[in-house]
Amino acid sequence: MPRLAVVFQIGSLGDSIVSLPALRSLRQLLPDCSEYVLVDRFDHVTKVLPAEVFEMARKPFKRLSYRGSGSRLSRIRSIASLSAQLRYYRPYYGISLMPSDRTALQNARDRAFFRSSGVREFAGFQEMGEEDCATDHCPGKKCSEAYLRMRRLWNGRSEDQFAIHGRAPLLEPTAAADDSVTRWLRTQRRHPERSLVAVCPFSNLSSKDLNLGVTAELVNRLESEAEVEVVIAGGSADASRASWIAEHGTGLNGCGIFSVGETAALLRKCSLAITVDSGPMHLAAAVGTRTVVVYSRTNAHLDRWFPLGTGHIILYREVACAGCGEPVCPLANHPCIDGVSLDEILGAALHVLRGSALPTMRSGTRILTL
């Protein structure tokens, strides 16, 4: 008799995408399970993202959410409602795809909640020790968040499973999403004969964002020197800043126009995506588009959130404030992002687009090829 599994994760775009290799492996891990209940945290940012990612990954699921914000009473009511719904579905397995820095206490609390809701067997709820995930520059992405989630499920077999299930493309945009983007491009493009390049300069934290002036000049030089057409991709919160860039440059403003699925279709049409550490970075990698990433140093572990797949170029700087975790950079010169020069970004892009030599990194910028 087929059994049901509940899959527990946060729900942001990047977080949903790095869970995909582990998610794709569930059919092998749980051969008697063919349907899933997705449990994620609901707020105004993540209300649709996990559902769209699951749909593009072609995974049958039912979605249940709980409130991670609001008043204490509303959160208690939300969790009580979630427990009642889980008892109705009666999932046999519980799978945690939560971040790997979750503590032993948090994992024990999560297990207790799902056990009280009827779950019988668990995978992925164990704590990852510092020795498992603390080192930088791990070979084969073995300290990436995507790999660590796979390791929590498969232990000694994780390397083989990641090689099978971690290959791009991990997402397949729908035909309807592709048609919508094609129609928009047909009316907006000025140079349809050129290759399309996406520039994604924004994230959900300003400490990771590219400077607006630098981005505008990058767009100009990409179109004039690389002879491509640039589309600025991002969400609705980025639309006004993208408009400023387009007004001071020559790119198309695609921010706030498309759903997540349509943005995936747009990025799949691009020869390259130039990004920061963000949801669009993960989305581009998941559909198989190569990226050049200007990578912030806010995370204590450089490699933790690298894009999935191969063919990517990471530009970063070793700075004294690495690992700060700050949502807004408190330093006037924003060294980890603004220290990466326009010429270095453009040179890395030309390497991907034309096969030219990688640029010489100056004044402390470092380069990784994945």
Task: Describe the protein in words.
- The structure is a single chain.
- The chain has helices spanning 13-18, 20-24, 26-29, 49-56, 72-89, 104-116, 130-133, 145-154, 158-165, 175-188, 212-225, 239-248, 260-268, 279-286, 335-338, 342-354, and strands spanning 3-8, 33-42, 61-67, 93-96, 121-123, 196-200, 229-232, 252-253, 272-276, 291-294, 313-317, 365-369.
- The protein has 370 residues and is an alpha/beta fold.
- It folds into 2 domains: 3-165, Rossmann fold (3-Layer(aba) Sandwich); 175-369, Rossmann fold (3-Layer(aba) Sandwich), CATH 3.40.50.2000.
- Strand 2, helix 4 and strand 3 (61-67) form a beta-alpha-beta unit.
Q: Which percent band covers the strand fraction? A: 15-25%
The H-level CATH homologous superfamily of the largest domain, spelled out, is: Glycogen Phosphorylase B
Q: What is the C-alpha radius of gyration, as a whole number of Å?
A: 21 Å
Query: Largest beta sheet, briefly?
Result: 7 strands, mixed
- Determine the mean pLDDT: 87
List the total number of helices: 16
Oligomer: single chain
End-to-end separation in angstroms reads: 43 Å
Structural class: alpha/beta
Helix content: 40-55%
Q: Give the second-level CATH assignment, the architecture of the largest domain.
A: 3-Layer(aba) Sandwich
CATH class of the largest domain: Alpha Beta
**What's the order of the H and E elements?**
EHHHEHEHEHEHHHHEHEHEHEHEEHHE
Q: Give the low-pLDDT segments.
A: 44-49
Q: Could you say how many structural domains there are in total?
A: 2
Q: Write down how many β-strands occur, each being a DSSP E stretch of 2 or more residues.
A: 12
Strand order, biggest sheet? 8-7-6-9-10-11-12
CATH topology of the largest domain: Rossmann fold
Q: What shape does the CA trace take?
A: globular
